Fold these 4 entries.
Entry 1:
Amino acid sequence: MSYKVSVIVPIFNGEKLIVSCLDSIWNQTIESIEILCINDGSSDQTMNVLEKYKSQHPDTDKKRIKIIDKENGGPSSARNAGIDIAEGIYIGFVDADDYIEPEMYKCLIDIADENELDVVLCNILNCYSDGRECASQEKVPTDQLLNRENILRMICPTLMGEDVFGGPCNRIYRRTFIEKFHIRMPNDIGYGEDAVFQMQVFDNLERTWFDSHCYYRYIHREGSQSSAKPARFKNTLEPLYVIRREYGRKWSISKQDISTYFVYCTIMDIVNTLKSEIDSDKREYMRYLLHNKNFFEALQLSDIKKDTYTLKIWLLFKLLKYTVKRK
C-alpha cells in the first residue's frame, strides 16, 4: 500500500519523550500515514516503549507504525534508514523530542498537491523551558509560490549558516523527488548533516512554498544544543565549510560570508574545547587548527564586525587574524 505520507522519527534514548511525539503524529488529521520509528541503538527502554505504543495503536488500512531497530549510527544513518523503506507519496521528519500540530501534514500536502510541488515548508514555533514561545523569523515571502530565482536569492544563502532552512523537519518532500536526485543525509559529518541534505534539495528544486503557520513545535531543552559540544572542527566544521564553499560557488554566494560564519563557528569551538573537561588533548587540537589551510584561508577572507557577535568573539577573531599575519 502507498501511504500519503511516511513520517520518519529517529530515536536515541528517547524513552521519556517519544510518546508525546508519536501521539502528535498518530493524531494527524490526514488519514493515510505511515510512522517509521527508527531506534538508533538506544541503551534505555526506548525499544520497549515503542513496542508497547505499537501494540496500543494497531495498524489499519490507512495507518501503520513500523519499528526499525538498528545499531547506533547517528541521526543521518537513522533518517536514511527511514528513507530507504518509506512507502509514502511524501516523506516527513519529526525529531523524537518535538511534536507537531494535528493539521500539519494535511495542510502541507494539500498545498503540494494543488501546486504540483516537490517540497513544502511551514514555520516553526520555538518552545523554551521557561515557557517562552516564539516563531522563527524568516526573510522569505510566505503563503505564495517561490520560483527558482526566489530559491537562489532568498533560501540558498541561508544554508551557508545556521537557519531553519537547514533543518529537515518543518517540511514535506515528494519521495520520487528524493529518489530522482539520490538525496541522502551524509554519514561522515558529526553535526550539520541536515544542512547538507537541504543543500542537495534546494540545488535541484525549481519551486516551493513556505506556509506561515507554525505547525512544527521545536522544543529547546537545556544541554541539548549540539553547538555546545567541543572539538567539532575536524569532523564537522571543516567538512561543512568545504561543502558550503562548493555550493556557494554554484549559487554565486559571497566567499566572505561563508568564510565569516565558518570562522565564527571555529572560534566558538575553540572556546568550548578549551574550557571542556571531556577533550583531554587540547594541545593537539590547537596544533591541528593553527596549521589548517582551510581555516587560514577563511580567516583571511572573513570579517567579523565588533557589533555582530559578542566582544569576546570579536577579540579572539582579531587575535587570530594578527597571528596569521605574523606567520
Note: The first strand starts at residue 5 and ends at 11.
Entry 2:
Amino acid sequence: VRVSVDDIRIGQVWEQVSKHERGMQLEVVRSTGHRWVLRPVGGGPSRKRGLREGIWTLSAEQINATCRLLRDA
C-alpha cells in the first residue's frame, strides 16, 4: 500500500522495513515542505546511520520505499 504526501501526518509512527534499520520506529515530528522530520522512538538500533543526531529527514518517496505505517496520528 503506497501512501501519498497527503497521507503523512505529524504524530504518525512508521516502522523501518529496509534491511539496515529493520524494526526501528520513527515518529513524524514536523514537515519542512517537501520533506518530513522523523525521530526514532522506542529504542532500536541506535548506532545506525543518521541516528547519532537522533533525527531523520525523509521525503515522502523515501518513507514509501523504506517504511510501513505502524500507528496513525
Note: The chain has a mean pLDDT of 81.
Entry 3:
Amino acid sequence: MVDEKKTASGTAPHRALIVGAGDTGLELARRLPVDWEITLLDINLDQANKSIPGSGFQRAVTVHQGDASSRLVLQGINAS
C-alpha cells in the first residue's frame, strides 16, 4: 500500500491495519506508538464498538466492519 500523505517532518505516517477487534487486536493497538494511524477491521462491528471506549487508547482509532479475506473490503478501506 502506498500512502501519499506526509507528516510535518516530510515522511509518510506509520499506519497499521489490525484484523480482529478482540482482546489480541486491541492489545496490539494499545502497544503501537501514539503517532501511528490505526485501523481496526472486524466482521462484528458491535463487538468492536463496545471494546473501544474502555480500552484506554491515547489516539483516535478507525473501526470498519468487514471480512478481511475480501479484496473488495480491503480496497474499500484503502488497504490493498
Note: The first helix runs from residue 23 to 31.
Entry 4:
Amino acid sequence: VINSAAQDMTQRQTELFANNCIQCHAFEPSGAPNIGDVNAWQQRSAKGEELLLRHVIEGFQGMPPLGYCSACNEQDFRVMVRAMADLPTPNTSEAN
C-alpha cells in the first residue's frame, strides 16, 4: 500500500529514497525502523516531523547524518520522512 505522502514524492525523490533510505529501512537486521512498520514508527511519529527531520539531518543513534544522502535537500528529507513514517502532508493550500 502506498501512502499519500509517498505519492507526493517526485521522480527525483523516489530515486533518492530508493538509493539511500531503503538501504537500511527495508531490512530487519539493520536496526532501523522498517518502511510500513506501523508499530516501529508510532512512537517516533508522535514526536513530530521536526524532530524526525532533525534526526535525519544531524544523525541519531544508528542513523547517519543526512542518511548518507548528500544530494538531498531539506524538502527532499521532509517528503521522504513523511512517506517513511506515514505522516500527513501539511495542507498548504489553505489561507491563514
Note: Residues 11-25 form the longest helix (15 residues).
